[in-house]
């Protein structure tokens, strides 16, 4: 049997980490995988997470199975965090999932059950796992334009022109905030047009929100997701807790499925529970319980929000410093887009050869499409990166 297996394509983001670790150069800079790092390059456990874990260890008196849908405290708290009452709670079904990836996988499985021939529209570019999972499930994918290579901002006209060709019953995958890999995001006014266009097409939105709190703030980053949820009769939302709670390896996420009327929520919820059972029975619990504890305890929640805000403002500061340094070196404003992008990433628009030159000559590791993780920078490395970008001719 196993002799029939072929080599599978490696994840280009994850394999970059392996190459970085093997590089002996002391001044190397890791701008690859999307993990938050402080100025020392360390990814700390957040204070509120540590405290919730301490309390959990002290108080948890059983490890018996949780519900198929996961911990209800977590689900209710996450529905609140993401949607904040944008739709009637009775229309929202939810399951805990292994990370945001698990939520996307379950969303696609749900679509496959309900509408197997629906086409899934994905931004070009997008997080590579989107296309990979859609293809793996044998579903049909189509790209919509998203990034303007010239301005390195959103190609809004291209995006809307493509979304106008979406067929009724198709699914449009949207990044709720902090677009990965580009860092370019629609304004609130542009979101209104996107919503109107997708709605006129009769399509169903699937929102992937993996960086709430990393862009403009917790509520600001959820505003588009809330507007989408409020505007459509049906909507799917895949949310990740990996980044904003810093619990990457705990595999914590949620899939919400919003039905057009509360009377349908029972069947929708039952189907989500069924999908959890088919794939792994019960979702991971530890991270979900920690998140539930933090969000429902006012003091823990306040401390979490304060630390998340420090992280967010730190990344914004790095963006500004890098844009300023590039402005100084080039005597132009053509890299100002870095300060306008939001989230962990910016695609700077360098060619694969230029990205490779920066790796070979300057030990700077960014993804081949010229996506860099802003959190991988600090005051010492910003001038090195800016000089390398200019030297590479990007
Ligand atoms: N969606 C996007 C756009 C992402 O960048 C990520 C990666 O962090 C995820 C979803 C899912 O992440 P995880 O499965 O680690 O929660
Ligand atoms: O885009 C990133 O870097 C993060 C982390 O298979 C990640 O989303 C990367 C690849 C992957 C899972 C997570």
What does this structure look like?
Homodimer. It is an enzyme of class 2 (transferase). InterPro entries: Aminotransferase_I/II_large (IPR004839), Asp_trans (IPR000796), PyrdxlP-dep_Trfase (IPR015424), PyrdxlP-dep_Trfase_major (IPR015421), PyrdxlP-dep_Trfase_small (IPR015422). With 394 residues, the protein is an alpha/beta fold. It has two domains: 127 residues, Alpha-Beta Complex (Aspartate Aminotransferase, domain 1), CATH 3.90.1150.10; 232 residues, Aspartate Aminotransferase, domain 2. Helices cover 46% and strands 14% of the residues. The chain has 14 helices and 13 strands. The strands form four sheets. The protein has a seven-stranded mixed sheet with strand order 2-10-9-8-7-3-4, sandwiched between helices. The protein has a two-stranded parallel sheet with strand order 1-12. A two-stranded antiparallel sheet has the order 5-6. Helix 2 runs antiparallel to helix 11 and helix 13 packs across helix 14. The N and C termini lie far apart (48 Å). Bound molecules: pyridoxal-5'-phosphate (PLP) and (2S)-2-hydroxy-3-(4-hydroxyphenyl)propanoic acid.
């Amino acid at each position: 049997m196993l002799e029939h297996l072929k080599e599978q394509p490696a994840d280009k983001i994850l394999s970059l980490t392996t190459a970085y670790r093997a590089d002996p150069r002391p001044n190397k800079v890791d701008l690859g995988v999307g993990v938050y790092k402080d100025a020392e390059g360390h990814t700390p456990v957040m204070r509120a997470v540590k405290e919730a874990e301490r309390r959990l260890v002290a108080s948890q008196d059983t490890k018996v199975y949780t519900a198929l849908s996961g911990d209800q405290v977590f689900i209710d708290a996450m529905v609140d965090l993401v949607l904040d009452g944008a739709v009637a709670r009775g229309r929202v079904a939810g399951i805990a999932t292994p990370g945001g990836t698990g939520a996307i996988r379950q969303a696609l499985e749900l679509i496959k059950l309900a509408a197997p021939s629906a086409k899934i529209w994905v931004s070009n570019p997008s997080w590579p796992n989107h296309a990979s999972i859609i293809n793996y499930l044998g579903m049909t994918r189509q790209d919509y334009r998203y990034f303007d290579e010239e301005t390195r901002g959103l190609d809004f006209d291209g995006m809307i022109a493509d979304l106008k060709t979406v067929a009724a019953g198709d699914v449009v995958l949207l990044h709720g905030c902090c677009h990965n890999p580009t860092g370019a995001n629609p304004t609130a006014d542009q979101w209104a047009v996107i919503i109107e266009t997708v709605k006129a097409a009769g399509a169903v939105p699937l929102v992937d929100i993996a960086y709430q709190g990393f862009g403009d703030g917790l509520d600001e980053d959820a505003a588009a997701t809330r507007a989408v949820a409020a505007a459509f009769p049906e909507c799917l939302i895949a949310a990740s807790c990996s980044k904003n709670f810093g619990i990457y390896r705990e595999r914590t996420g949620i899939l919400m499925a919003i039905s057009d009327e509360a009377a349908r929520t029972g069947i929708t919820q039952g189907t989500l529970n069924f999908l959890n059972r088919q794939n792994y029975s019960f979702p991971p619990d530890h991270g979900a319980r920690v998140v539930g504890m933090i969000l429902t305890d006012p003091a823990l929640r306040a401390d979490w929000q304060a630390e998340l805000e420090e992280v967010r403002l730190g990344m914004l500061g790095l963006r500004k410093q890098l844009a300023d340094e590039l402005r100084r070196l080039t005597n132009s404003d053509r890299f100002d887009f870095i300060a306008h992008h939001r989230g962990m990433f910016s695609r700077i628009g360098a060619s694969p050869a230029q990205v490779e030159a920066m790796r070979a000559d300057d030990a700077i590791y960014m993804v081949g499409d010229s996506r860099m993780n802003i959190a991988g920078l600090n005051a010492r490395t910003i001038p090195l990166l800016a000089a390398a970008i200019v030297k590479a001719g990007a």
